[in-house]
Each structure stands twice: as structure tokens, then as C-alpha cells.
Amino acid sequence: MPSKNIDICCIYSIEDYATLRAPLIDPLQIPFGISYVATILKNNGYNVDLLVLTHDSDLEVVMTDYAKENYPFLFCLTSVASEFPFICKVCKIIKKRFPSTYIAVGGSHTSLFPDYSIKQPHIDCVCIGEGELAMLALASSIKQNVRITSINNLWIKDKLSGVVEKNKTANFLEDLDSLPFIDRQMWQPWISNINSPYSILVGRGCPYRCSYCSNHKLSGVADGRYLRYRSPDNVIAEIKYILISNPSAESIYFEVETLGFDHKYDEDFLKKLRFYNFSLRKPLSFGCNLTLTKEISQSEALLEKFKAANFKFLNIGLESGSERIRREVLNRPYYSNESIIRFCASAKKFNIEIHMYVLLGIPGENYLDFKETIDCVRKCDPGKVSLSIYYPYPGTTLYDAVRKKKYLKTDIAEVRLERKLPRLDLPDFSKKEIIKDYILFPYFVFKGNTPLYKISLLVIKNLLNTNYKLNRIYRLLTENIFFRKKKLKLIRLFFGD
After folding, report:
1. Residue 3 pLDDT grade (very low, low, confident, very high; cuts 50, 70, 90)
2. Disulfide: which of 48, 202, 238, 484 matches 42 by Cβ 3.0-4.6 Å?
3. What integer best gives the mean pLDDT of the chain?
4. Is 56:21 a contact under the CB 8 Å cutoff?
5. pTM value?
């Protein structure tokens, strides 16, 4: 029997990766859900290990090699809908190499589809809702060799009878300050480029109910307040903690669905952040998500406060330049094209760069809608555009509509090149047209305003994104340590992340 020097192994999987050895492109890709679980387990005395797997990982080899030195009594895995089939493969091989170990799977997919998830033959329990306390209680039961039962948020399968114990789901954790700062050190071996901005979780939940996002369904898996924020003092304490380990850190991204919703919180947060930041010898720069509403789009006062706190960029979601699509299909908060254009112009006055999310191939979209998107983005003139092709995620209301209209033939779409290839057979926007417009999008948006060679490089990047083999070559080149050491930064400069 191998040495049991590892108590618990947490597993995270990723489809679009940097390298097999270090799959995460940069620290911004560290997932917070399983990070908090792993950190709490570690802080409570368990020897916790981490594995990051890709769809190209040789799972048999990875698990065989891992079993030579480790035999965890618990594996904790997490999954979104698109990763669940792969996670099931991982669980099968875990049971093959570690037949007596216990397997728990959490994440948004098990929260939304617990009945389906617990039926998978190699999963012992699934977690619904937040998993920090549930995994701690589960680890304690296994460690003490007592019956695993009556643990909130867990559906537990009896190994002999297959009967499932469906425990109640506890309320959403209201006091986020009670969570520890995540252990970033355990992620470092899995990150290709560690010299990148840090990210800090500021809140959980979302106040909006966009049809293509699972937040509107996840808000109903437990009682209590779904939208929660950490206190500004607690966030600043984590910034201090980061600077102790890395005094050369320059920027931090605040991970939150949106600021701007709770005006009292925003004012307190930005005020305290400003005072703290400018007490530093070298102030940090910041960025975050900001969901536009009619009120926010007209508020230069909010932009002024972001500027005072040294925010260098804001991520905003246009998604579609068609107000009809935003209103009737995506269920976005209301903002007119005119208001978002004015907001982007105001941000420029404060020297805040706008990074814009755009979605293509939306159900109900036609080419005229796409032309409206091009026109709106051109007028906004954002510093960066994150372009995606709509991917139908189970558990969203838009997915249900897509299935009802038979735009999608399978339960879960192919995940290779997720959000980089069209999955739907739309009557008014063909897959061929969507791919062409995805590739040429930089030309449509930036022509006349950006040098042609830069546009050409962005077009080439989008072309590479639509071909798996070419995409892998691109990733290997941009993440190769030789290129970084030689300071050949042109690829990253123009291609981005």
C-alpha cells in the first residue's frame, strides 16, 4: 500500500490550457470555489494536495503515478456543466487506482442537477450549494471512520444499496469575512505565467437574472441572501496579505459579478481602497466587472470614484448591440446603445480603459443584429474586446429555450473550443457565417482606427481559436519559457491572453 502522506486531493479541470505541466495561463485563472474548500481543509490540519487536469492529460498515467506515492482518503472535484463528462472520466479512473477512497463532486453542475450527478457510478456524494463546511464535515467523518450521514448540502450514496440520502441545503453563507484568504501557493506549480495580476474575490452572487447565465438558477438552490459582499476592511486585509508574500505586486483584479449595484457598499469600498492604496509607497492599480444599468451609464460620479481609487480598467458586458436581443433574449439590465456609448466616452475622460464582453451567435440573432453590435462597439471604441460565441449551458433559461426550439441536438454541446465555435443551428445566422464573423470581428470593429498590422494579428488569433490544433500551437508558443526569457512579447502584446 502506498504511503498515505496526502489526506485529501482536490482536482480542478480546464479545457483551454497553457501547457500540460502548468495548465493555468496566469493567476487570474485560479478558481475560487475549490480554492476556499482546499484552504479550509488545510487550515484544519489536513494534508491537502492539488491536481489540475486538462482534456489532453493522460489520466491513466497521471493517476498511476500519483498512486505510487499518495493514497488520499478523499478526492474533492468541482465541475461546471461543460466539464462534467470529463470529470466523470476522472472519477472512474480514481476508483480504479484508489478503490477505497471517497469521491465528492461539487460545483454549479451538481448544484443544479443533483439527481443526474449522484447517479454517476463512480461518485459517492455530490454537493449542492456552497461546499466549504460540507467538505470539512465530510473529511472529519471519513477520518474518524464514522458513518457519513446528516451533512448539510450533501447527497450521499450508500455504497452497498445505492440509496441516496438527500440532506437539506444550508442557507447561503452570509458572512464572507469568515472565510480564510485562499492559499495561492498551492496553485503556483500549475500556473504557466506567475508574473501576472492577482485576483481577489469580493462577493458572491449576482443581482441580475440574465438568461444565458446560471446565476438565476443557482440563486434558488438555497435559502438566504444570494448576493453578498466581503467587507472593504477584509478585502484590504487580503491585499496586505498578498503584498507580504509579494511586495512587487502591481495590480489586482477584484472578482465579483458586478460592483455598482449596492451604492452604499460601493462608496465605502472605493473610499477605503483609495485611502489604503495611496498610503503605499507604490500604489496598486485595480480592475473589476461593472454591469451597466441606465443609472450607472449616466453616472460620472461613480467613474470619478473608480479613478480616485486607481482603477485602470472596467469590464462591462455589451453582449449584443441589438437592444431587442438584450431585452427579449438575454434579459440584460436595461441600457440603450446611446447610454453605453456615452459611458465609454466618459470613462476615457477619467483615463479608465473599458474592456468589453461581446457575444456572437445568440439564439434569435440575425445578421442585422450582428451589424448593430459592430456599429455599437466601434462607437464605444473599447481598449479590449473579449469576443465569445454563445455556448448553451444547461441550467439556464436560454438553454431550455434552445432545446425547445431544437437548435441543439444533444443534451450537452461539444466542449472543445468552448465559446470559440458555434454549437447551434440557427435559422437566421448559419454556423459558417458565425465563424466568418468571429474571425473577422477585429477588422469590422477596428478598421480605420487601428494600424492594419495589429488588426491582422488579432484576426489571426481568432482564426487560431477556431482550430484546436492551431490553438494548441499558439498556446505553446505564447507560454513557452524560452520566448518569455528572450522577451519576445509581441505575440502576447497583440494576441493578448
Report:
1. very low
2. 48
3. 93
4. no
5. 0.93
φ/ψ of 225, rounded to 5, equals -80, 120
HEC sequence for the chain: CCCCCCCEEEEEEECCCCCCCCCECCHHHCCHHHHHHHHHHHHCCCCEEEEEEECCCCHHHHHHHHHCCCCCCEEEEECCHHHHHHHHHHHHHHHHHCCCCEEEEECHHHHHCHHHHHCCCCCCEEECCCCHHHHHHHHHHHHCCCCCCCCCCEEEECCCCCCEEECCCCCCCCCHHHCCCCCCHHHHHHECCCCCCEEEECEECCCCCCCCCCHHHHCCCCCCCCCEECCHHHHHHHHHHHHHHCCCCCEEEEEEEEECCCHHHHHHHHHHHHHHHCCCCCCCEEEEEECCCHHHHCCHHHHHHHHHCCEEEEEEEEECCCHHHHHHHCCCCCCCHHHHHHHHHHHHHCCCEEEEEEEECCCCCCHHHHHHHHHHHHHHCCCEEEEEECCCCCCCHHHHHHHHCCCCCCCCCCCCCCCCCCCCCECCECHHHHHHHHHHHHHHHHCCCCCHHHHHHHHHHHHHHCCHHHHHHHHHHHHCHHHHHCCCCHHHHHHCC
Nearest Cα residue to 271 out of 312, 304, 317: 304
Residue for cell digits 492529460? 57
Query: 110: closest CA among 301, 395, 350?
Result: 395
- pLDDT number for residue 464: 92
Give the whole-angstrom CA distance, residue 232 versus residue 208.
Answer: 22
In angstroms, the CA 104 to CA 76 distance is: 5
**Torsion of the alpha carbons at 201, 393, 118 and 103, rounded to the nearest 10:** -40
Q: Express as a percent the part of the chain with pLDDT over 90.
A: 87
Tens of pLDDT, residues 253-285: 999 999 989 999 999 999 999 999 999 999 999
Interacting residues of 270 by C-beta distance below 8 A, sequence separation 6+: 305, 306, 308, 309
